[in-house]
Predict the 3D structure of the following.
Amino acid sequence: MLRPHLKTAKSVQVGRMAVEGHDGRITVSTLAEARYFAEGGFTDILYGVGIVPSKLAAVTELRRQGTNLRVVTDNLSVAKGDRRGSDDGDTFSVLIESTAAPAAPACPPRIAGPARHRAPPAQRARRRARGR
């Protein structure tokens, strides 16, 4: 299920239009946005920015208020800490961000208009050698 990202809209009314016809899951970029949309009645929210331990108390507080707030990390040690939640034993969903090929070069950001990513010279040479 897709989660509309409401970073730009920042409006409960627009959020309701965005989730019309599905179960109401959304994504936000800040904990302030998460609080705002939770107060507006959204109950399943993904905080789409890598979580840091200093923000866990705010996540736990929103969860205590009835919001299923999920978090993301790309760091396994942070994920293990995230799963512990608060001192009162609260646990919550932690999505692990991973790359399929950690050794592969990152694709550069797209520039306005049609653009193609071109593999680095060494990679192109390996492809030619394999006959691709």
